[in-house]
Specification:
By secondary structure, the protein is mostly helical. Helix content is about 70%, strand content about 0%. The radius of gyration is 21 Å and the shape is elongated.
Length: about 210
């Protein structure tokens, strides 16, 4: 009789999960893989190994690596936007909204560096389909921020344009913070960037003619 080798519990005998829960598990496992390796270098085998499932199980939920990455982008962007929106909604005034918003942003980055890398990595920007998803995240965040800019004489288009500047301030600062592995506390960094943004918002005036160069 042929020898029957016991199956590995972590993969072959893994407990069955409801489909929605399994998808969340697979997405969570994919965060670190794609965040560390990037879209092109990472493989579905690596994601399956990180999730403790077989590759056929992974393909049951995500038919391709591109579809998995696209959904991961959307999920991470939604989580970031939701946490920032909830923090701003709980604030009790304009300055607190700025402080709480930046605080939530940098706290999320500190807890989800892999997710941040997935959203804002260069590979995401170089792929048209992925870049469109990134643009959606940035646009929704800018639209939310624009509604908080209350300056008489500034129309909605100008407020939205300036809101992109605030989004860019947070994103660029966080990108260098993560990429350079700087030993700076998330709360301290958030407070400093919030102070910088608030100083600009507080002094914001309707557009005026530029001063002549001397």
């Amino acid at each position: 009789m042929a020898d029957r080798t016991p199956t590995t519990p972590s993969r072959q005998s893994a407990a069955r999960l409801p489909a929605a829960e399994r998808r969340r598990q697979l997405l969570d496992a994919a965060i670190d893989v794609f965040g560390d390796r990037g879209f092109h270098s990472a493989s579905m085998n690596e994601v399956a190994d990180a999730a403790g499932v077989t590759k056929p199980v992974l393909y049951q939920h995500f038919p391709s690596k591109r579809e998995l990455y696209r959904e991961l982008l959307a999920a991470m962007g939604d989580r970031l936007r939701t946490e920032v929106a909830e923090a701003v909604a709980a604030a009790d005034g304009p300055r607190s909204q700025v402080e709480q918003g930046f605080g939530a942003y940098f706290d999320w980055v500190a807890r989800h560096q892999g997710g941040f890398q997935v959203i804002f990595a260069g590979e995401t920007r170089r792929d048209a389909e992925f870049a469109a998803e990134l643009a959606r995240v940035e646009t929704e965040m800018a639209s939310a921020i624009a509604s908080l800019i209350v300056v008489e004489g500034l129309d909605s288009e100008r407020r939205r344009l300036l809101a992109y500047g605030i989004v860019g301030m947070a994103e660029t600062t966080a990108r260098h913070w993560v990429a350079d592995h700087l030993d700076v506390d998330a709360g301290v960094l958030a407070a400093q960037v919030a102070e910088l943004a608030w100083a600009g918002l507080r002094g914001l005036q309707p557009a005026a003619e530029p001063r002549s160069r001397r």
